[in-house]
Amino acid sequence: MKVDVVKQEKNIVELDIEIDADIVAQEYSKACRKISERMNIPGFRKGKAPRAIVEKYVGSDKIQKEILDRLLPNVFADTISEHQFDLATEPFVESFKLELGIPLNVKAKLELKPDVKLAQYKSLQIDVPKFEHPEDSLERELKALSEKFAKLETVVDRAATDKDIVIIDYNGTIDDEPIKGGSAKSHQLDLGNSNFIQGFAEQIVGKKVGDEFTIEVKFPEDYFDPELSGKDAKFEIKINEMKQKIVPNVDDELAQKLGPFQTVEELKEDLKSYLEKSKTTENESRAEQAVLSKIIDQSEVEIPDSMINKEARVLLEEVQSKLKSQGISWEQVLETQGHESMWNNLRDEASKRVKTSLVLGAIAKEENLQLNDNDFVDRVKDLSTLYNTDEQSVFKHISQNPDLAQTLSQQIMGQKVVDFLVENNEIKYIDDVPRENESNNE
Fold this sequence. Notes:
Radius of gyration: 32 Å
Strand content: 15-25%
Number of domains: 3
CATH topology of the largest domain: Trigger factor, domain 2
């Protein structure tokens, strides 16, 4: 076997591979046997059909593909390892000549990851807006916990407020035409936490049980359904029932229901500890993002389209899966945003991801950062806790999924580089005004 490596244009390597004729002959026989074992060929048991019959039944293209699939991965792996190539995409076979009795000749290309011109990444001063919980965070947490034990009590003798829950029938129309999916019977609506379009719940406040009335609303311009976006609509509404929340007092009795607490003071101390830990976690995250953003923005790299498109396709699958879980049609999203606009947005995000990965990889190489067994064991422990299973099961699952193992290795190394950057730069927290609703448990 002979492999000639020819450096071509920037980041492209061409391979001229020659594999001995006797090896090709052996693999040809193995390929025919493997194919016959997988296929039902009339008149023969699996694996028993003669080679001539297999050739006639499946054709030469399938046999040649089987041979290449068996031979080339090892050739590529050995060549990549020998020359320490860092691939951007999978090896690409340009052409091949496969005939029995002569050596197999394959021409292939490898696309390498581009070089990164790193910005200064050590001994920097990084300003990080400091996160602080709002002053009433403890009260908010207690209120949220008490509301989990709220009971609903029927109300009949007053008008609805924005703290009530109503059971309504509604029927929506646009230009006197029914709105598809715009009607329901006995729908329960929380007037203070409505996910209906703006103005719907607000116009029910002040009405009483038994009232029948019409409200007018406007669908947002960016509404996911283009047939409704920006349209004026009317809804006929009838209030069948109204309920109010009865929230228990925050006292010792509530504390005992919430956990291993005897008094409300013990509960408060636990919440204070939680809030302090969440503040620390948020500030650590902010520091990591600030360091990363500065170094990545100032580093330079020319990313090939192949890498961006590959990552964009991964993002596309993620988006489609998320939308499906939410019951949203991918076709509807495309109609709203347009295929070209959607793809360009995915490419923009993919470009950011790829640049981040390349910069982190370059720093890891520059600093000779390596993974060790403990790094992987710690990650497996975290995963076993996250998924409430034993570590052995996690190890088994990873061993059966090579792509998952590679992804985890990349994640672990990425975090290792981030930790290194935080340790080797000066983080200066500066005052920041927290958002009004900023709290980790809301």
